[in-house]
Amino acid sequence: MTEATNDRNSVTMIDNRSGKYFTFPILHGTVGPDVVDFRRFYAETGMFSYDPGYMSTGSCSSKITYIDGDKGILRYRGYDIVDLAENCTFLEVCYLLLTGELPNVKEKHDFEDTMRYHSMLHEQFHRFLDGFRRDAHPMAILCGMAGALAAFYQDSIDIHDPTQRMIAQHRLLAKIPTMVAWAYKYSIGQPFQYPRNRLNYAERFLDMMFRTPCDSYEPNPIFAKALDRILVLHADHEQNASTSTVRLTGSSGANPFACIAAGIASLWGPAHGGANEAVLNMLQEIGDPSRVGEYVKKAKDKNDPFRLMGFGHRVYKNYDPRARLMAETCREVLDATGNRDEPLLKIAMELERIALEDDYFIEKKLYPNVDFYSGIVFRAIGLPVAMFTPMFVLARAVGWIAQWKEMIEDPDQKIGRPRQLYLGSPGRPFVPLDKRG
Ligand code: CMC
To answer: Which of 207, 228, 320, 371 is catalytic?
Structure first.
């Protein structure tokens, strides 16, 4: 089949085997590339489209996040990420992602109150957590905790009831900081700390992470501000692997807590949310700026599986706009800790410098992504490496919830069911056990 003609609103293809013509509509987004509407492709041609990794496939329509990877643009609900990161709190951005509009003063306060109201976890979570091995990775614990919310909060899992749906969204968003902090406390054997609701969202989280019953603790305002910005930068990113997982899971009618558990599992992989952890491990392995060249060489070697972690992106073929803001936050935090000479930062800066000048990285458009600097910030705040991906969960939960909400409210929503190109045996006679060689 080859493309024959196209006008502004349709594309026509010829099947070269039969000589038949097929026409498919072109849909126009508000910005960004047009898409060919292939929904009737199978019905009309008897063929499926083949696109592993969804390199050219739009899986849904959405009004939430827009990315132009070539220009390095990221917008939430039409607002540029730089404006949001510089002027809004994370909870304002959450409100924006969920409702489509930035809150006015009253809406902002009401939303913050709602987040305080739902911040505690069911008391029985203590016992639920006791079931995990002490050395369990916090991501493993978080997958379990998110799914378990459906057992603890059964009065908000009816997806056909708009009130229950709204309460589930608020519960998820308000409880995620408590869940992440408790997963951490469990892994280090310290007592769980309850949310102190007089603090703001980021401070509350830091407080639950680092307070102990033995000492007083006040969250460092610079760390809280940096964390709030990190949350804004990671809040949503269009139809990435974990968000698509949440949508696909939700498309079967699964409850929102189960959907978020699926999203957490998908985010865990090193090519997605696990990259910030991988970046820090890589910087530690490099150990000294003088060894950066050696690692750049390894990354370019086709016979070596090593890749520069924190470089490259499926969508951004330009500097990731979030990476710039993250580099700025990184410097602010290191200044605040009096740690501007942090050796890992020096290695990171040298790596960035060499890679940005190297033909291999220039030709393949491999720029630093958001995870390149976030690990250094997390480390300066005092978070262990195993908590880096859970931090991504803390931020991305709102994006998952907003995308799930949009999908459930879409009257055209259908269960997701991709097809395949089958390459296995076409069919063979059954061989009884005693006749198998
Ligand atoms: N170091 C060295 N070479 C690379 C890298 C890298 N980090 N990333 C891509 N390449 C090369 C790759 O070998 C390939 O070369 P060739 O065309 O000669 O085969 C070419 O660039 C294209 O790579 P790809 O794997 O086909 O691109 P992709 O869009 O499938 O992968 C990626 C995107 C993010 C998985 C990949 O760039 C990568 O593995 N980066 C390192 C991991 C990382 O930092 N991930 C975080 C992504 S941002 C957070 C998020 O949104 O979740």
So the answer is: 371
